[in-house]
């Protein structure tokens, strides 16, 4: 990944271990800086990618009704505390002009947007805007439901809360009935 300095992360993690009063040279911690650097290269792998590039596959199929992929699991990192927030994204669009994309590409889009220091609101909007940009659809609706570990394991200490964010574009912004239909589909169990 360009812009990713593995060695610098290792040095920083070693310094954090020292700063919390640990001994980075004890056996159990010797490999930890390198492990954390490898983990960060995974969880931040979306940082140097453009989420829109996940939507390069376009099929010429005339379908002008809702396409919804729901319950897309994601893990992201809260940019304020660098601890995970995670949950599900539901991604819907109404194509127009015979431009549809591969279903897996919607999940790839979520993945790329999530794997970076992130805010839930920005994650939600980034997914919606990538769809608008690449597919020029009649409408887009994205819903993200997540739990933030920074609210669960520290600070306000409220495990089990769910934060729900939405981003709607086009006809799903202007037409409340259509929007309700899509949101109902998203939340049907
Ligand atoms: N809007 C938004 N806030 C977030 C997100 N992730 C974490 N936060 C919040 O970011 C805020 C940071 O608040 P600060 O007062 O700067 O930091 P803090 O003292 O650690 O805050 P507490 O978490 O309340 O202890 C907290 O209220 C978090 O709940 C997110 O995705 N979106
Ligand atoms: Zn946080």
Written account of the structure:
This protein is α+β, with helices and mostly antiparallel strands. The protein folds into 2 domains: 38 residues, GTP Cyclohydrolase I, Chain A, domain 1; 134 residues, GTP cyclohydrolase I, C-terminal domain/NADPH-dependent 7-cyano-7-deazaguanine reductase, N-terminal domain (GTP Cyclohydrolase I, domain 2, 2-Layer Sandwich). The protein is built from 7 helices and 7 strands; from the N terminus they run H-H-E-E-E-E-H-E-H-E-H-E-H-H. The strands form 2 sheets. A 5-stranded mixed β-sheet has the order 5-2-3-6-7, with helices on both faces. It has a two-stranded antiparallel sheet with strand order 1-4. Strand 2 and strand 3 form a beta hairpin. Helix 1 packs across helix 2 and helix 3 crosses helix 4. It is elongated. The mean pLDDT is 97. The site of zinc ion has 5 residues, from loops. It catalyses: GTP + H2O = 7,8-dihydroneopterin 3'-triphosphate + formate + H(+). Pathway: Cofactor biosynthesis; 7,8-dihydroneopterin triphosphate biosynthesis; 7,8-dihydroneopterin triphosphate from GTP: step 1/1. This is GTP cyclohydrolase 1. It comes from Sulfoacidibacillus thermotolerans (Acidibacillus sulfuroxidans).
């Amino acid at each position: 990944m360009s812009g990713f300095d593995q060695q610098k992360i290792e040095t920083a993690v070693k310094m954090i271990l020292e700063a919390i009063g640990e001994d980075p040279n004890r056996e159990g911690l010797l490999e930890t800086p390198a492990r954390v650097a490898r983990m960060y290269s995974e969880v931040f792998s979306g940082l140097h990618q453009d989420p829109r590039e996940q939507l390069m596959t376009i099929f010429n199929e005339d379908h002008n009704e809702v396409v919804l992929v729901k319950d897309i699991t994601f893990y992201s990192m809260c940019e304020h505390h660098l601890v995970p927030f995670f949950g599900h994204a539901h991604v819907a669009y109404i194509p127009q002009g015979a431009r549809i994309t591969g279903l897996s590409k919607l999940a790839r889009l979520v993945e790329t947007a999530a794997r970076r220091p992130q805010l839930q609101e920005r994650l939600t909007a980034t997914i919606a805007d990538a769809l608008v940009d690449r597919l020029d659809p009649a409408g887009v609706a994205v819903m993200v439901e997540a739990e933030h570990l920074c609210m669960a394991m520290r600070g306000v200490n409220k495990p089990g809360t769910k934060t729900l964010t939405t981003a709607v574009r086009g006809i799903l912004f202007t037409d409340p009935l259509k929007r309700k239909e899509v949101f109902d589909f998203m939340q049907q169990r």
